[in-house]
From TrEMBL:
Keyword Transmembrane helix tagged: yes
Name of the protein described by the UniProt record: DUF3290 family protein
Matches recorded under Gene3D superfamilies: Winged helix-like DNA-binding domain superfamily/Winged helix DNA-binding domain
Keywords annotated in UniProt: Membrane, Transmembrane, Transmembrane helix
Classification of source organism: Bacteria, Bacillati, Bacillota, Bacilli, Lactobacillales
Residue ranges of the region described as Disordered: 55-94
Length: 215
């Protein structure tokens, strides 16, 4: 279509030139010939400017090919890029949770019983053993009591338990100094080793709470 318009415009332009020459020779009006020249020139320019159907088709084909190649490349890139794993960070266990981690049945119950006595009585290791095996306590066998204590022993802060026990004696019996130290180490008292009892007396005014019995 664009070629046809261009040809018509070119022919009109030539005819206009010829008519202009004839009118010049005959000395007639040149208006019609000039209009024809201008119109022919415009048609010729328009015909040349409009792209042909083949050019449009080629441009569309090239665009489609480019989009298809881009999509294919993007798909391959997405397929080849490994997705980050959504693995959860391992849970950090507290010392108390570590003490019972993986335990079941009697072992779990015995260990929980030992922990309960530490919270309620702020006991030394020896006093805890006596309570676990006592007929007035948990009535465990020696092996059961030792097993429960051994599971919590590395995780317990026995010094802080001595501090809490010392605080209790001072509040309930107004004990201080050597009398308090004797009560902490006595076989009729808390049965703490000498070094732990001394720590308890020396740090009695520290801000130690029941939650601080764990390392």
């Amino acid at each position: 279509m664009s070629a046809f318009i261009g040809i018509i415009g070119f022919l009109a332009f030539l005819i206009g030139i010829i008519m202009l020459l004839i009118n010049l020779f005959r000395k007639k009006s040149k208006k019609k010939s000039l209009i024809l020249i201008v119109a022919g020139f415009i048609l010729f320019v328009v015909g040349v400017s409009i792209p042909s159907n083949n050019q449009n088709k080629e441009a569309k084909d090239n665009t489609s090919t480019s989009v298809s190649s881009s999509s294919s490349s993007s798909s391959k890139k997405e397929a080849s890029t490994p997705k980050p794993s959504k693995s959860k960070a391992p849970k950090v266990l507290t010392s108390q949770e570590k003490a019972v981690d993986g335990l079941t049945g009697n072992s779990l119950a015995q260990t929980r019983s030992a922990i309960s006595y530490l919270y309620s009585g702020h006991m030394s290791k020896q006093e805890l053993y006596d309570q676990l095996t006592s007929e007035y306590g948990s009535k465990m066998t020696a092996d059961e009591a030792n097993g429960a204590i051994n599971r919590i022993d590395p995780l317990v802060n026995w010094n802080n338990l001595a501090v809490l026990s010392a605080k209790g004696y001072r509040e309930s019996g107004n004990l201080t100094g050597q009398e308090l130290l004797d009560q902490l180490t006595s076989e009729y008292g808390s049965k703490f080793p000498q070094d732990q009892a001394q720590y308890g007396v020396a740090h009695i005014d520290d801000n130690i709470k029941s939650t601080d019995i764990w390392k």
